[in-house]
Amino acid sequence: MTIKTKRYPNATTKQLESLEQLVVILLELFNIDKTDIYAHAKIAYKDKNSAEGVYLLEYLRNKL
């Protein structure tokens, strides 16, 4: 599965798998819930219409 973004190259399957593994470790390490993860564009945006990180966040929330 690849995730398409408008500004960056598509994430590869291997990158998505690595991201998922990292996030699982961080969730456990910091004892947080997946609902405590935010897309970069939603908390530190330059353009209010930016969707940076939103696709990856949706992918993660569906996988975790």
From TrEMBL:
InterPro entries recorded for this chain? Amidase/PGRP_sf (IPR036505)
Q: What is the lineage of its organism?
A: Bacteria, Pseudomonadati, Campylobacterota, Epsilonproteobacteria, Campylobacterales
Out of the domains of life, which is the source? Bacteria
Which GO molecular function annotations are given, in alphabetical order?
N-acetylmuramoyl-L-alanine amidase activity
Q: What SUPFAM superfamilies does this protein map onto?
A: N-acetylmuramoyl-L-alanine amidase-like (SSF55846)
Q: Name one GO biological process term.
A: peptidoglycan catabolic process
Q: Which protein is depicted? A: N-acetylmuramoyl-L-alanine amidase domain-containing protein
